[in-house]
Amino acid sequence: MSSYYHNSKNEQAYLDLLQHVLTHGSEKGDRTGTGTLSHFGAQLRFDLADGFPLLTTKKVHFKSIVYELFWFLSGSTHVDYLQENGVRIWNEWSTAEQTARFNRPAGDLGPVYGHQWRNYGATKDENGIYNNDGIDQITQVIEQIKNNPNSRRLIVSGWNPGEAEQVALPPCHTLFQFFVADNKLSCQLYQRSADLFLGVPFNIASYALLTHMVAQVCGLEVGEFIWTGGDCHIYQNHREQVELQLTRELYTLPTLTLNPDVTDIFAFNYNDISVDGYESHPAIKAKVAV
To answer: Which residues are annotated binding-site positions for dUMP?
Structure first.
């Protein structure tokens, strides 16, 4: 089967991919025992000037997207920050049972995204605690965008082969690359494992938000967000929900607003970010959240 590509000014690209996998996906087993319909290789493109890609056919919990992104950017790998801000999406991976598999206390997720983004390749001390001697990929890539925007090395990797098996859930969104042209910043994400119903709407919005934030602190406009998926799948127990979602009417994508005074990627707070009218949109109020 050939790879799937779609370019759209709204979420129709995503919905078409759902339909494609429902119709043409291969039945496969998976680590959960649930079973999936899967397709290998897909790409969706979103022009961020046309709206912020937060779904209107299903409510996506934007608060969780924002706080999780802040958590990644902070370099933290403990769920305390998320839980303190009412975000529960990492709870199942941070239980004492899960973390004990790696000889870590409850809540300590190990070298997940934040560690790889901010302290990649760090060494450990005699107690097995990471030293702060790794590569701060976020700081590094922002400096590169500012000083060498034509570079083809504007890359952040979340996948470290030496540490991928030291966490309960190895990174699904594994690598992203920035591109600067015509004073616009674009970003492409590669996602090795893509849960199309639950995870991908979250990931698209998260990296679109990151692109806006990085563009602002680098003095650029936004270009495209390009999502590239490897194993793109729909779990068998999500089929009915996906079919329902595909019957819903599309609405205009919301507009993202950032506090223009923020010039440091690590200085954003929750009140600096809003999606205009999303939560009050009557179409969103009537839909079930991810």
So the answer is: 31, 152-153, 192-195, 203, 233-235
Q: How far apart are the first and last CA of the chain?
A: 29
Residue 111 has pLDDT above 60, yes or no: yes
Question: What is the pTM for the complete model shown?
Answer: 0.94
Pair 181, 152: CB distance under 8 Å: no
pLDDT tens digits for 48-98? Answer: 999 999 999 998 999 999 999 999 999 999 999 999 999 999 999 999 999
25 SS3 class: coil
- Domain positions in the chain are 10-276
Distance CA 129, CA 125 (A): 5
CA distance 161 to 81: 27
Residues in the chain: 290
Q: Which two tokens stand for residue 226?
A: 């390009």
Active site residue 172: yes
Q: Give the 3-state secondary structure percentages of the chain, helix then strand then coil, rounded to 5.
A: 35, 25, 40
Class of domain 10-276: alpha beta
- Residues forming the annotated binding site? 31, 61, 152-153, 192-195, 203, 233-235, 289
Q: What gap in Å lies between CA 156 and CA 141, rounded to an integer?
A: 7
Catalytic-role residue among 172, 187, 218, 232: 172
